[in-house]
Amino acid sequence: MTTETLAPVPQAAAAPPGPFREFWGYFRANHGAVGGLVVVIAVLSMAAFANVLAPYPPDLTNNAAFLQPPAWQAGGSWAYPLGTDAIGRDILSRLIYGARLSLLIGIAVVALSIVVGIALGLVAGFARGFTEIAIMRMMDIILTLPSLLLAIVIVAILGPGLMNAMLAVAVVILPHYVRLTRAAVITETSKDYVTAARANGAGTLRLMFSEVLPNCAAPLIVQASLGVSTAILDAAALGFLGLGAQPPSPEWGTMLADAREFVLRAWWVVTFPGLMILITVLAFNLLGDGLRDALDPKLKR
Amino acid sequence: MLRFLLRRVSLVIPTFIGMTLLAFFLIRIVPGDPIETMAGERGIDAVRHAALLKEYGLDQPVIVQYGIYIGRVLHGDLGKSMITQEPVLSEFATLFPATIELAVCAILFALIIGIPAGMIAAVRRNSVFDHGVMGVSLTGYSMPIFWWGLLLILLFSVQLGWTPVSGRIAVLYDVTPVTGFLTIDSLLSGEPGAFKSAVMHLILPTIVLGTNPLAIIARMTRSAMLEVLGEDYIRTARAKGLSKVRVIALHAFRNALIPVITVIGLQVGVLFTGAILTETIFSWPGVGKWLIEAINRRDYPVLQGGLLMLGIVVMVVNLLVDVMYGVINPRIRHASTR
């Protein structure tokens, strides 16, 4: 059913922009968001072409160059532009390979969380009654506990490691997607188009996935972008506490944990991994804010 | 009002039960039984194993075990640490003031800077100051605070030598704990220099822990102020001839405060999350560091008890914020009794 038959437009001016053009128009006006997008693309290409861009393999040690300072400092050389760590590994190469891990973490965690979250949210929104209460109470409990604490306890029980850390972070950010989906479902199901679809004989599954879900997409996309930044930050924190990716993996948080004891004599091993986390997280947050402004119809005025 | 209170308090009960379920069953997920896990690689002989199973009530059906657990929790018994053999609750009670002291300082730091910054940014919308505040705030929000702490140590402790690297007070002071808050205890002790030492130790952890809440509070204050400044009653107050300062400070700010209070309440969870990292970096002897050490030593009763206690604290604070919110704003009170 389309709305074309409603009212003939008398003198049609220029054709209205397509949905993507319209979105891009709003998005482009937000400089921060565009900057965020550029950085995200840069980090993505760093991850994709890590083996081409990185001067060395991430685990290659050099006995002749322990804790060598960055190139511009006395004692540094351009062979290791950002210096080396305590066992002579090139920091730049490890940072570049680390982009793979951080993006993998961010995207995998959000993907898992969003799929489970949408499923639970749809069930809660459509089923109502006891099922809804049980699901939403569970989400409230997860939200009540300090997020990193819950993640830490989950990892402590499942055992440290990248997979378990990702699982723990996915659990911690799950409630946002469940709540968003359920709220959107409840708003949408009372609208006429759903009633019409139902009157036409659409089953619950069809209503869920092809009628209601596409109309809840905007807030979920925004939350997904912001969720990637939370996931990267929390996974790095777990890595820093020794509960996430394990050494010698070049995960940025794990690199920081390794570097902690050298904070007094080698500033570069501590500074650069954290800077990468900050820049990446900041970029995803800027992107998320920009998406929200461009997709939220309430702000489009 | 009474109905609102009862309704709100009754909502806490299922959350509490859910939290005990979570704390109880999380430990049960550990592969193998808890005794074997705690024994670790040393192993344990069968007789001692059976005796310990009985001692911890692990030979009972799970439902019975949960019943016993709940009964103990309600009597304030959270079990004993596997390492120190001290009751978990008393260890928690000893360490919690250190965390509270840090958290209170951090939230004060966030409020004292965040609220004025957010207000000025809103009043001077789109000025350089506004863009600056928003940029700094987004950076603070994206900051990996464990790295931020290391950077501050690098700059202020290592390069400049202004602040100590770790701990709560210099070891040469022997302050008797009265309140558990060292800034107060050191004043009470009357030892010269003790208070200054306690404050110097607090500065960096406060900044690190306060960074995230500061960013969130500044952003929230700005957007709440912007919304209020667009209201008709602000224009009316200005038209009446009230000065701009008076309108902003009294009329606008008071109304903008409601969403800000909610956000402050929500920061409790953020603060505890941050406290775990901050305490680890600065060797601050609070519950966050205690929990991380418990993980490294596989001290499950401490983990279980600590999770439950922090959950309860967050729950109670959220309840208080909700009730306060209802007191301030009658619309909330009536909407929820309907």
What is the typical, i.e. mean, pLDDT of chain A?
Answer: 84
Return residue spans of chain A where pLDDT drops below 50 for at least 5 consecutive residues: none
Largest interface: A-B, 45 and 41 residues
Please give the count of helices of chain A: 12
Strand content of chain B: under 5%
**What is the number of strand segments of chain A?**
0
The percentage helix of chain B is over 70%
Quaternary structure type: heterodimer
Give the biggest sheet of chain B. none
> How large, in whole angstroms, is the Cα Rg of chain B?
24 Å
Tell me what the structure shows.
The complex is a heterodimer of chains A (301) and B (338). Chain A has 301 residues and is mainly alpha-helical. Helix content of chain A is 67%, strand content 0%. Chain A is elongated. The model of chain A has no long low-confidence stretch (mean pLDDT 84). In chain B, 77% of the residues lie in helices and 0% in strands. Chain B is built from 14 helices and no strands. In chain B, α7 packs across α11 (244-282) and α10 crosses α11.
Short description:
The complex is a heterodimer of chains A (about 300) and B (about 350). Helix content of chain A is about 65%, strand content about 0%.
Topology:
The complex is a heterodimer of chains A (301) and B (338).
Chain A: H1 19-28, H2 31-48, H3 50-53, H4 91-127, H5 129-144, H6 147-158, H7 162-189, H8 192-199, H9 204-212, H10 217-240, H11 252-259, H12 267-295
Helix pairs in contact in A: 1-12, 2-4, 2-12, 4-5, 4-7, 4-10, 4-12, 5-7, 6-7, 7-10, 8-9, 10-11, 10-12, 11-12
Chain B: H1 2-29, H2 34-39, H3 46-55, H4 62-74, H5 88-123, H6 128-142, H7 145-159, H8 182-189, H9 194-229, H10 232-239, H11 244-282, H12 287-296, H13 300-328, H14 330-337
Helix pairs in contact in B: 1-13, 5-6, 5-9, 5-11, 6-9, 7-9, 7-11, 8-9, 9-11, 10-11, 11-12, 11-13, 12-13, 13-14
